[in-house]
Amino acid sequence: MERFAYYDTGHEFPEEIIMAAGFIPYKILGDVHEPTDPADRYVHNYICPFSRSALTEGLAHSDEWAGIAFCHGCDTTNNQYDIWKLHVKAGFLYWINTPANNNKTAKQFHVRELKRFIDHLEKKFKVTISSEKLSEAIRTSNRIKDLMRQLASLRASKDIPNPDYHAIVRKSIQEPKDDLIKELESTLKDWKKRPEFPKDRVPVLMTGSDITYSEWMEVLENAGLRIVRDDMSLGERYFAETIPENGDPIEALVDYNSRIPQPPTRLPFEARLDYLFKCLRETPVKGVVYQTLKFCEPHLLDLPFMVDQIKKAGYKVITIEREYTPVIDQQVVSRLETFREII
Amino acid sequence: MIRISRFIVKHPDITINGVKGFLKQPLTPRMFQIIMQYINRTKLMKLFPWVKTGSFSAGFPVEIARAFDVFPYYPEAYAALTGSAECTLPSIEHAESLGYSKDLCSYMKTSIGASRLNWPEDFGGNEPTDMYFSANAVCDTHMKWFENEAKIFGKPHFGLDVPSFVAGEGEERHEEYIDYVEQQLWDLIRFLEKHTGKKFNEKKFLKIIDRSAEGSRLFMDLFEYRKRFPANRYFEWVRLFMLPMVCQWNENDWIRFYKKHLKMAQKRYGDNKVIESGREKYRIAWEGITIWYKVDLYRKVLAERGAKVVMESYTDSFPLRKKPAAPTVSATFRQIARELISTPPYTLNIDARIKYFDKLIGEYDLDGIIMLANQSCRPQSTGLQDLRDALVEKWGIPVLILNTDHCDPRAYAEGPINTRIDGFVEMMEAYKKRVGKAA
């Protein structure tokens, strides 16, 4: 089965449509270890380094993918789609204009966008994406989300190092789903047997830009901080909610999309904050790590207000603007260690 | 008056700098008067408890709110004026001290910093308004900035989601996007009815649209005279001249003002393409926001080398409004939607952007193009390299990509920029010889 790649800066992409079309959905996450020189030929270096890394991956690997689809997330998606269209060799490159709002009008538009996407896939790949196939894909997705929820919930009680959690989340959006279910089931058995939450680790909630490489998870681990909750797309946003299994599957996907913890590119603001406080109520943490990737505008724009709200709620919070690099920055480690001492 | 008096007493140095900055602008007394009239009205309106006020991001279809008597405030315009007064740095630094990153939009930081410092509108401040309106047609920043402000001040926010019409899409999808935006404009009516307690007055709205379209038409008619030799007006003038139209205040005044300028242009040129003093040495187009705090770049650095900016996508992005196909609200909403999605050069995809500049090169007889790689406007900066490559390949025209920022003077390195402009001028000279243009 071929991979079908998608570029999505939040968690808006309907993987289930790709699964129903007979492809393996593969989220483009770039590679922090590869220089972004090929992308820097087209995109300025003061624009999101992750987006440049994703473009670099697209330039190098697009021939391994059946097609590529974009979802409207932050400005890098709509702005850079044209650059991909000009320079990335793709037999099928598609733009899904996921709405920024979360109201009735936006949902109706979203349904139309997804139907149009299905129509284009069917024509291009000569496949039929029936309601039955979609429903089956939704059930598979829900099984994965359920397993991921169980795994993620163990972070607060078992010894699950940050990179372990990160690795499994990354797999959940890049690996073939059937193999993934088996792996998640086996990992769940393994994690349940893990020792109790280590006393020398401090539980924290992580928010902000998606972390796409494990080295930054190691930074936190080195500082003695253990992420037990998060609200990131490469994290809980992916599995926090279940897709309705009854009724029209397209409507179900849109309904699901409206209920997931929202990324900063979506309105209204409250949805994001509500989920964050829900996490804080559900799971005792000692503090909040609010990290943003350099040039990640949506998160940088939210940061002052969000931090203020978190502080007002009585939580300790550290804000860190990080570079896109696998190098473990000892200055960041020192700051995190100090934060750990404070909390 | 109290706020500006307090400001002057507290910040005499900034006030003096501001006055000096304004004096550098090619402002006529009438233009200055029109700008000050608006600033003073913004202050006055907040004193009237019965007047509903709204903060708008640039490009938002303000006419709909104005039909409900919402008085418009434009934080970006105040930031732009503060930029032209060369006074943005203290407010930008104050915003950064509040947690806003150095990498965020300098319009936004100028406004937020000045507002939190309780500076008056003359120096970029914007007191809380009753409502907030923004669209993502241009950038996420518009949407997030106004949503954040509304949230902070506990006010309602209306976010207009404008789909991105990416390269390669056809008319069918365009129409679907128009449907979506039209539907949201009806949602906006319900939002305004709820928050103003007034019913939508269609006649009043259509009349406002008519006047808005008239203003846009006059502005564009004036652009025609920039195609003549020498151009009627240059960027450093037009960037201020457009402000009344951008901010939609007292349109009778600015329509009169624009008409007067159109008459002057007609008198100057008549039917002539060239007037006695002849063509500029180098005619250039500017892609991107103007560098507000550095009018000398246009009036001295470029001008002294014989280069004048005769056309710019920034000022061309605002005279949007056209008369709808039919005088109905639905037709007008669809026209507004079309204008938002695919008309302003700022929202164009790369294919349309290339076509836009292809047209400008011929129509304005350009010798070169300066593209601003704007460190705090990433959407505008994205795709510049492809745009440049396409234009250079097709026309051989010199293109300079200039890295700096539109409102943050810290990003402006005078020496290196001047050196690059010297090189650009040499390229334009060679280009003119190559294509056989008279020296």
Model description:
The complex is a heterodimer of chains A (about 350) and B (about 450). Chain A is about 50% helix and about 15% strand. Chain A has a 4-stranded parallel sheet with strand order 2-1-3-4, sandwiched between helices. In chain A, strands 6-5-7-8 form a 4-stranded parallel sheet, sandwiched between helices. Chain A is globular, with a radius of gyration of 20 Å. Chain A is an alpha/beta fold and about 350 residues long. In chain A, about 50% of the residues are buried. Chain A is built from 14 helices and 8 strands. In chain A, strand 7, helix 13 and strand 8 form a beta-alpha-beta unit. Chain B has about 450 residues and is an alpha/beta fold. Chain B is built from 20 helices and 8 strands. In chain B, the strands form 2 sheets. In chain B, strands 2-1-3-4 form a 4-stranded parallel sheet, with helices on both faces. Chain B has a 4-stranded parallel sheet with strand order 6-5-7-8, sandwiched between helices. In chain B, helix 8 links the parallel strand 3 and strand 4. In chain B, helix 6 crosses helix 7, helix 10 packs parallel to helix 13 and helix 17 packs across helix 19. Chain B is globular, with a radius of gyration of 21 Å. The mean pLDDT of chain B is about 95. At the A-B interface, helix 4, helix 5 and helix 13 of A face helix 8, helix 9, helix 18 and helix 19 of B.
Average pLDDT level of chain B:
94
Strand content of chain A: 5-15%
Helix content of chain B: 55-70%
Largest sheet of chain A: 4 strands, parallel
Number of strands of chain B: 8
**Distance between termini of chain B?**
53 Å
| Greatest interface (CB-CB under 8 A), with counts per chain | A-B, 50 and 47 residues
Contiguous low-pLDDT stretches of chain A (5 residues minimum) are none
Major sheet characteristics of chain B: 4 strands, parallel
Q: Count of helical segments of chain A? A: 14
Rounded radius of gyration of chain B (Å): 21 Å
- Low-pLDDT sequence parts of chain B: none
The succession of helices and strands of chain A, N to C, reads EHEHHEHEHHHHEHEHHHEHEH
- Order of adjacent strands in the largest pleated sheet of chain A: 2-1-3-4
Output mean pLDDT of chain A: 96
Helix/sheet category of chain B: alpha/beta
Major sheet strand order of chain B: 2-1-3-4
- Tally of DSSP helical segments of chain B: 20
Q: Over the alpha carbons, how many angstroms does the gyration radius of chain A reach?
A: 20 Å
